[in-house]
Recover the amino acids of this structure.
């Protein structure tokens, strides 16, 4: 019955307007582990990391060329138990970074966030994956938001712009006169990528938690009650069905 329902959902999307860029808040790993009876809730991070590979396969199959995933915020890195954070970082290194760097992977990797808050090994693994996939010819782009905070990203973008203008000898008044949204966007950690059309958050939480605050200004939002490791293909197809049924206004 599940396969029949999934095929029916897929057929209804034929010819529909699908998002070019999907962003996902992969929430609920620990709660899923507790629900499944694991003694260590951090085990959910392994299942969550493994599941990303499957979800990327669904995106490639449907021709969704840009994906951004929210792996960990700055607050996650600083406020959670040290052992749990260490476990999550090892999962990122072993499951995400190393696997995506393999030649058979379709995805070009980009990292967005405050990388100085990451352990050296995690930072190195992600940068290695980024370098290894930089010249990959496949048209699929994955942005890994880790050590990420949307407000910090905007502040960093403005600081970068002001620093460059100061070196060029420009006055504050001159900078303010020419300041535009486009100039700030060009300094964001995600610069060069299209803004997300659809943002999906799992686990039933209805908030953005600082994710892509600038980029998602006109995105369609979809909140799913299932936890990330239990996020099924039918859940993903339902999100796309909801997106296809909406009339995007872009603030108009």
């Amino acid at each position: 019955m599940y396969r029949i329902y999934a095929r029916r959902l897929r057929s209804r999307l034929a010819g529909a307007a699908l998002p070019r860029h999907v962003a996902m808040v992969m929430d609920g790993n620990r709660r899923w582990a507790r629900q499944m009876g694991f003694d260590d809730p951090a085990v959910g991070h392994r299942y969550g990391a493994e599941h990303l590979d499957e979800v990327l396969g669904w995106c490639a199959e449907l021709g969704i060329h840009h994906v951004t995933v929210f792996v960990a915020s700055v607050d996650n890195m600083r406020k959670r138990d040290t052992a749990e954070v260490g476990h999550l970082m090892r999962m990122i290194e072993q499951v995400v970074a190393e696997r995506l760097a393999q030649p058979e992977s379709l995805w070009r990797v980009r990292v967005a966030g405050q990388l100085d808050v990451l352990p050296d090994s995690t930072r190195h693994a992600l940068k290695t994956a980024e370098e290894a996939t930089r010249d990959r010819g496949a048209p699929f782009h994955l942005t890994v938001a880790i050590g990420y905070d949307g407000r910090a990203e905007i502040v960093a973008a403005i600081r970068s712009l002001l620093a460059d203008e100061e070196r060029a000898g420009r006055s504050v008044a001159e900078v303010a006169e020419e300041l535009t949204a486009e100039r700030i966007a060009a300094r964001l950690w995600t610069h060069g990528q299209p803004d997300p059309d659809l943002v999906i958050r799992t686990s039933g939480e209805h908030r953005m938690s600082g994710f892509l605050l600038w980029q998602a200004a006109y995105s369609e939002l979809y909140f799913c009650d299932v936890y990330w490791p239990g996020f099924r293909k039918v859940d993903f197809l339902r999100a796309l069905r909801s997106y296809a049924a909406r009339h995007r206004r872009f603030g108009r």
Notes: The longest strand covers residues 140-148. The beta strands are 21-25, 66-73, 107-112, 140-148, 198-201, 220-223. The chain has ten helices and six strands. Residues 70 and 145 are 5 Å apart (CA to CA).
